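hiii, so i know i said id send this last week but things got crazy w the move. better late than never?? heres the sequnce for the chain we talked about at the cafe, plus the structure i predicted for it. fair warning i was half asleep when i ran it
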Amino acid sequence: MALIVVFVALYLVPVAGVVSTSLKTNAEIAERGIWALTGKLTLANYIDVWSTANTVRYLINSFQVAIPAVAVSIAGGTLIGYALSKFRPRGGTLIQLVIVSGLFVPPQVLLVPLFTMFRTLDLLNTLWPMILIHSAVGFSICTLVMRNFFDQIPDSLRYAALIDGASEGDVFWRVMLPLARPALAALATLQFTFIWNDFLYPLVFTSARDDVATIMLGLLNVKGQFTVAYGTQASLAVIASIPTVVVFFVFQKHFVRGLLSGALKE
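okay and structure toks below
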């Protein structure tokens, strides 16, 4: 129990510090420090970061990266995972190994060849590098997870639907896909959070243009003229965390069931 309290504190204390800092003026932070308690709370930092920084542009850019990357990776991973699980093609294990092999390579190792490739394609300082990379990486993860999920569904369910006259497409869309909602919700939540919080790829591929920066790179761009604008950065950090929190609460019920899929016998 004590260990749980320690881990919870390690997560919650920094969050509380960021929220508290976002409600202080920069002058008070400079005078009393980030962690000093205060009775004066202000929304000035939120108003400032929303009106003067490119916050709306950062948020739009992040959504333009996250939504298509999540959709492509989950759609592709679900189709391939289902095919590998239920059709069992010859060499299916090798196919899956090839698909997930990209997960074994640290992303930092791929930065130079990726940078060279996107420069050749004239895609630097656009959102396409992040969309393509996260779609590819997510495709590997989603394929692995969805194959394991479909392996838990008895083949007799598919055969029964086929005997009743359903086509393979009907079996997938009307039988298997509804059963896969928990796994899809878990993947959507994890993928969206991972992509939304990504800092490395936007820094490498879009740092030359502020108008294509994502929200995480925007945190780096928001700074004071002579000092670090802790209050402004903290308020933007709070704003940046809201979409991931909303996504988690929307999919919370299915998310927990998706994580437990295959772990418990019914």
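btw DSSP finds 14 helices and no strands in the chain. thought thatd interest u
miss u guys!!
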